[in-house]
Write a structure and sequence with these properties.
Elements: E1 2-6, E2 9-12, E3 17-24, E4 30-38, E5 45-51, E6 57-59, E7 67-72, E8 77-82, E9 91-99, E10 105-107, E11 111-116
């Protein structure tokens, strides 16, 4: 199983960007999928989480109300819609997932999001 992120890039403060995370090598759905980020010189931190069964979500306080996590079961893709972006959102964003019937945790390689002021 591989997780591949896409959609990163450079955006001005106040703008929007959408990240995607596709799970390949499996037909099983996510039991849980999340996004984490790591800014330069900082530790990786939690951003958002979606539970596959209930569809319930959790967000870090710093992104609550600005970011939305979602998923498409048909294509086994997770999304992170980011709006009202701030320079402090600049980081490498990582997709994290647990796959049904697998019991293992997977990480994508990460994708860079840069927010200019």
């Amino acid at each position: 199983v591989q997780l591949v992120e896409s959609g990163g890039g450079l955006v001005q403060a106040g703008g929007s960007l959408s990240l995607s995370c596709v799970a390949s090598g499996t037909r099983n759905s996510f039991t849980q999928v999340g996004w984490y980020r790591q800014a330069p010189g900082k530790q990786r931190e939690f951003v958002a989480l979606l539970r596959g069964g209930s569809g319930s979500t959790n967000y870090a306080a710093s992104v609550e109300g600005r970011f939305t996590i979602s998923r498409d079961r048909r294509t086994n893709t997770a999304y992170l819609q980011m709006s009202s972006l701030r320079p402090e959102d600049t980081a490498v964003y990582y997709c994290n997932a647990f796959i049904l019937g697998d019991g293992m945790e997977y990480w994508g390689k990460g994708i860079l999001v840069t927010v200019s002021s």
